[in-house]
Amino acid sequence: MRIVCLAKLVPDVDNFQYDHERSALIRENVRLLLNPADATAVAIALKLKADSRAGSVHTVTLGPRSAMPHLEDLLRRGVDRATLISDPAYAGSDTHVTSHILAAFLSRCGFDVIFAGTHTLDGGTGHVGPQVAEILGIPHMAGISHMDPESLSEGRAQVRVESEEASYTFALQLPAVLGFAYAPEPKLPFIRYEALKRDLSGRVEVIDNQALGLAPEQVGVLGSLTRVRKIHVKGFRSPNTRFVRPDDEGIERVYRFLREKGFVR
Amino acid sequence: MTRRVLIYLDPEGEADSIQLLEAANRMYGATGYRSYGLRLAGTCPQAEGLLDVLLQVEDPRVRPYDAANLARCVEAAHRKHHFDAILIPATTFGRMIAPRAAMRLHVGLTADVADIHREKGRIELVRAAFGGRMRAVVAHRGRGPLMITVRKNTFTLDARIRRSTDIAPLVVDGITEPEVTLVERRPAEKAADIRESEVLVSGGGGIKEHFDQLEKLARALGGRVSASRRVVDAGLAPRRIQVGQSGKTVSPRLYIAVGISGSIQHVMGLKEVDTIIVANTDRNAPLCSLADMVVEGDGMEFVDRLTKRLLKGGKG
Ligand SMILES: Cc1cc2nc3c(=O)[nH]c(=O)nc-3n(C[C@H](O)[C@H](O)[C@H](O)COP(=O)(O)OP(=O)(O)OC[C@H]3O[C@@H](n4cnc5c(N)ncnc54)[C@H](O)[C@@H]3O)c2cc1C
Ligand SMILES: Nc1ncnc2c1ncn2[C@@H]1O[C@H](COP(=O)(O)O)[C@@H](O)[C@H]1O
Predict the structure, then answer these.
(1) pLDDT digits (tens, 9 = 90+) for B162-221
(2) DSSP per residue over B141-202, as a string?
(3) Buried b vs exposed e over B35-73: b needs ≥16 C-beta within 10 Å?
(4) Antiparallel, parallel or unpaired: β A24-25 and A2-6
(5) pLDDT at residue A195, rounded to an integer
(6) Which of A18, A94, A163 sits opposite B92 (nearest CB)?
(7) Which residues, other chains included, contact A108 with Cβ-Cβ below 8 Å and sequence gap of 6+?
(8) Topology given in CATH for the domain delimited by B3-170
(9) For residues B304 and A148, what is the distance between their CA atoms, to the nearest angstrom?
(10) Residue A140, SS3?
């Protein structure tokens, strides 16, 4: 069983930079972190491998070169192979283009199942999983909170999805894209001391558009079907904050404030 | 020119789907378009009398959770009727159907549209970006319908105009045997929904061991308790009362946050909250900058004292 994990590095939203002229996120020099839901997906894949239910775990990332140290980190945690798809021509790609680029690679790389996150922290659209599945013509499920490890060997996967209305158990025919929701467990395995010295050469590859051969008008800003036209950096609200302490006086002021606002009759 | 708008009617979110009529009103004005609903036969009866046309999928192989086949249905409906806009509720399954349908139609898709304006005849779609820090105006390029998903509670349809509804079967080519099958569905226990409460008393990491004691303050104010993810991840509160990006978006009139730092993922869940009161030992916690009032000190002391004060009542 070969598992391919779609793993995106997202800018740390607390420290991002934005290019107002180009209406694009400046992805170079921004602190990156592995998208939390993708980390859950990779952790589940590695657990399956540790339990001998999966043969190999391969991560695929579309992003800037600065993702490299993160991918090496994943290799030290037990991922077998990492691919970084990186090309300046891909800058500014929306989810439609991103899905085409990822699918172009996936359709030639070989997999039995694709793991992904349900959505990312930065874009957060959750479009990439279903769109990759659509291009590859395979089923997809998002919001997976649990997967039955035993079901995975039989050419199908049984997964659980929790929504507000219900808890569903679905069986999907493989190959499929399985989109996992972020969960605090399982966590990525720790890096063992021996792994620090491991030779990673040959296990990370960087490929660009020469390898994938997509037409220039199909990628990047040109190929995108949506574009961010304006950005409002909004102060969410900036009230006149009053400070009090939880002593008699302070509580009285809170009480009076609640009365004024009509929350206390 | 009369526009045509398609709304996908998700049987797992019937009311939320119908609310999307209000999104269409914002786009073209209440009388500027003809509304089409796409539904599976035998579902969403409430749409009758509210939408102009119901396109009905009668092929039993199409199930409400089978996004691949439903995307084919959306495509077939569009090929036949050439919509100006396709609106899909951001329900569990709507979120999976919309991207696949957009891919089939080769059109852009804007997710979780938070606001819609018309400016000089052009429709502006607004969504939150970068973790709620910013609002982005998104433009669609190329030909084809304007395709969006909208979260629950984003638009409220107040004037329900009664219409006579034509029901027409939709024939869809290329439907396949489903590759996803439902093994089991257990309804979530219908618990009180924090989104319906005008007052929320919310607890976070700073007071998590005492979380259960917030209930009395909430009750004294006629509200409900909610939580940050720190409390939920610690197993001290159920996921359904979590506020934030991976929880719920709430718009209470009053939000009292006790021991919550105010990370961006938490704040994303606060939409148009009238009044915010924060109790925190740290007056520089990020949430304090959004508060009308900050009670600087121990959160449980605040909860105990304010509850007593409320129960005592009067002018004091
Ligand atoms: C993908 C993703 C999605 C997420 N989604 C959500 C989400 O939906 N909702 C959410 O809430 N979080 C979410 N988070 C987590 C979020 O980043 C924060 O970790 C979380 O909100 C922190 O919770 P907290 O503020 O309650 O706890 P902490 O960060 O631990 O803050 C505790 C606060 O309590 C104060 N305090 C300490 N002692 C006291 C006391 N005695 N009295 C009063 N105050 C005290 C401290 O000063 C501090 O400000 C998400 C994270 C990720 C990565
Ligand atoms: N640039 C990318 N590289 C690799 N995987 C991605 C990329 N963008 C999105 N994905 C995958 O698709 C999921 C959904 O992303 P999104 O549609 O951006 O919310 C993520 O959790 C990843 O698993």
Answers:
(1) 899 999 999 999 999 999 999 999 987 766 789 889 999 999 999 999 999 999 999 999
(2) -SSS-EEEEE-TTSS---S------EEEEE--TT----SEEEEEEEEPP-PPPGGG-SEEEE
(3) bbbbbbeebbeebeebbebbbbbeeeebbbbbbbbbbbb
(4) unpaired
(5) 79
(6) A163
(7) none
(8) Rossmann fold (3.40.50)
(9) 45
(10) strand
Instruction: Check whether the bond before A186 is cis (ω within 30° of 0).
Output: yes
Q: Which CATH architecture fits B194-313?
A: 3-Layer(aba) Sandwich (3.40)
- CB pair distance less than 8 Å for A134 and B100: yes
Tell me what ipTM this predicted complex has.
0.82
**Which of B97, B111, B305 has its CB closest to that of A251?**
B305
pLDDT tens sequence across A30-48? 688 899 899 999 999 999 9
Topology classification of domain A2-223: Rossmann fold (3.40.50)
How many angstroms separate the CA of residue B49 from the nearest CA in chain A?
25
How far is the C-alpha of B204 from the C-alpha of B182, rounded, in Å? 36
The residues in B 17-46 lying below 8 A from A, measured between CB atoms, are none
Distance CA B238, CA B253 (A): 23
Omega before residue A36 within 30° of 0, cis: no
